Amino acid sequence: MIARRTLIAGGAGLMLAGCEKVVQVPAARAILFAGEDMHRGLQRALQGRDALAPEYRRDQMSPIFRANGTFNPNTPDYNALVADKFAGYRLAVGGLADAPRSFTLVDLASMPARRQITRHDCVEGWSAIGEWQGPLLGTVLKAAGVWRSARYVVFRCFDLYGGQPYYESIDLVDAFHPQTILALAMNGRALDVAHGAPVRLRVERQLGYKHAKYVQSIEAVATLDGIGKGKGGYWEDNVDYDWYAGI
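== DMSO/TMAO reductase YedYZ molybdopterin-dependent catalytic subunit ==
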């Protein structure tokens, strides 16, 4: 099976125009997003459900790690949080959970943190290696008593697309993966606005569009029906990206 990393590198010239342009290049889209179920099944069968994404040394980190997607939600609510240095931020975690609750940044920062240096592969055709630090998503879900019988977790974000909060989802396999974290810091500093402050998802075995920025809430659900148009994410619903973007 050809790795998506290889396909991304080969298709970089087509992708640099931006995510929205992929839909205008059917051949490129077909290569990148061919067969969600087949790709997900084959990859997990070959790699194992706990396979780790490669990690790198500090001297391999990229000198520039460009931002992608939204650079600033720039809504009144978000701007108020920025002005207050995110002191009023609350991450709501609920849905199929025994103890739905909200977490402050202090709460999240007090949890055992994972630090990892990984490569971000964007569907636009670029990659960068950076360091991320934050609590395991699984730790946060356990603290809220999320049911292990739930199938997916849905992330809703502060940035707006078409006037609605951006959204994305992953399944519980990736949610409890040892490299899936809620990043609070990048390259040794608190996240800046362009890179998703105050909290962004890092799901290291998937393409960049799955790494939701500006995370506001997390909901455990049994089905993706009723989430957007039912495919589990903004790009999946509107640009026909695959829900599973494994690399």
